[in-house]
Amino acid sequence: MFNNLKSKLKGFFKKTPQDLEEKIYEDKEKPDIEKIPEAVETVKVEPEPDVPKLSRRERIKAEKEKKKESIDPLEADFGKKIKDKDLDNILDELEIILLEADVAFSVAEEIKKGVWENLTGKKYSRKFRLDEIVEMAVRDAVHDVLKINEFDFDEWMKGIEKPLVIMFVGINGTGKTTAIAKMANRLQKDGNTVVMAACDTFRAGAIEQLSVHAERLGTKIVKHAQDADPAAVAYDAIEHAKSKRKDVVLIDTAGRMQTNNNLIEEMKKIARISKPDLKIFVGDSLAGNDAVEQAKVFNDAIGVDAIILTKIDTDAKGGAALSIAHTIGKPIAFVCDGQEYEDIQKFSAEWMLDRLFD
Ligand SMILES: Nc1nc2c(ncn2[C@@H]2O[C@H](COP(=O)(O)OP(=O)(O)OP(=O)(O)O)[C@@H](O)[C@H]2O)c(=O)[nH]1
Ligand SMILES: [Mg+2]
């Protein structure tokens, strides 16, 4: 009797879900809701004949490998512990790379300290070497600094009431006047009307220099005589732009050392009168350690909004970008890479990272 029941049950388990369904309705029996899903499940889990069976050890190993893949290399909880001595050695090497790329010493030190604090005592996945882990962490730290408040000038422009006023500041000879000419060219090509304000009334020849660019580019320039009050020039340029419905006013200012208090005060006055929508600090990519002090003084005086880094075409690697951005926490809007009007590009953190490390 039991043998018969066993063979019936065998037959039942070999059936597919469709067979079962057909069978149930063929017999015109009321479907047993409790039994059907159970039966379907049993059919589904029948082992495939050609799947190799793993031993317990093999299964554990496979499971670990699977876990490894989904793990952050810096947070592996079953990896190798980072030894402070090894970490110090690798970080010293990376610091030299940063210094060779013109990153200011204080900034390189701070980045190193931050990475050390993040990694000390941590475990890391055996899939990586320690130097790879540390380089990844330094790259991340640098990337974070460069990405701070990413600044898309063209997007920013769309939201500002016209005429929008942009003031350029920085120490002597960093490329402010050239950057203004490049920006005028870029803005005009995008269909904007531009007014240049010749507010460097301090250096002999500065008004003439800007006038030459204005003439070449067909840009309106507002200028006064040498030694005139630069704030008054800025005011006139903005009034002109308002009355003639011009789109953008670009204010050129005299180069001034961060140590010259009189000229720093004069710059504050230009900013107070012209109320710029954007104050751009123009920094030389070769500035090195000095970049930190410059950026601090200009930022404290008028509140810098963005940075243009110039002369990136020289043999500078561009570490000044990192120093300035790290010191004042402001975004780098553009980099200038030559003396032609087209030599101005939007800044990209990824591009700078490759330049620094490769
Ligand atoms: N190679 C290179 N030279 C540049 C770049 N930008 C500016 N220059 C050159 O740097 C020199 C100084 O440029 P300016 O634009 O006069 O600098 P500035 O900041 O206005 O100078 P001051 O008004 O005296 O403070 C000029 O010879 C420019 O041609 C650049 O991106 N690359
Ligand atoms: Mg100038």
Short structural description:
With 358 residues, the protein is α/β, with parallel strands linked by helices. It has three domains: 2-44, no CATH class; 74-147, SRP54, nucleotide-binding domain (Four Helix Bundle (Hemerythrin (Met), subunit A), Up-down Bundle); 153-357, Rossmann fold (3-Layer(aba) Sandwich). 53% of the residues lie in helices and 12% in strands.
Walk me through the structure.
This protein has 358 residues and is an alpha/beta fold. The chain has three domains: 2-44, no CATH class; 74-147, SRP54, nucleotide-binding domain (Four Helix Bundle (Hemerythrin (Met), subunit A), Up-down Bundle); 153-357, 3-Layer(aba) Sandwich (Rossmann fold). 53% of the residues lie in helices and 12% in strands. It contains 15 helices and ten strands. The strands form two sheets. Strands 5-4-6-3-7-8-9-10 form an eight-stranded mixed β-sheet, with helices on both faces. The chain has a two-stranded antiparallel ribbon with strand order 1-2. Strand 4 (194-198), helix 10 (206-217) and strand 5 form a beta-alpha-beta unit. Helix 6 (105-119) packs across helix 7 (130-147), helix 7 crosses helix 15 (349-357) and helix 13 (290-302) packs parallel to helix 14 (319-328). The radius of gyration is 34 Å and the shape is elongated. Guanosine-5'-triphosphate (GTP) binds next to helix 9. Magnesium ion binds at residues 176-177, 200, 206, 252, 255.
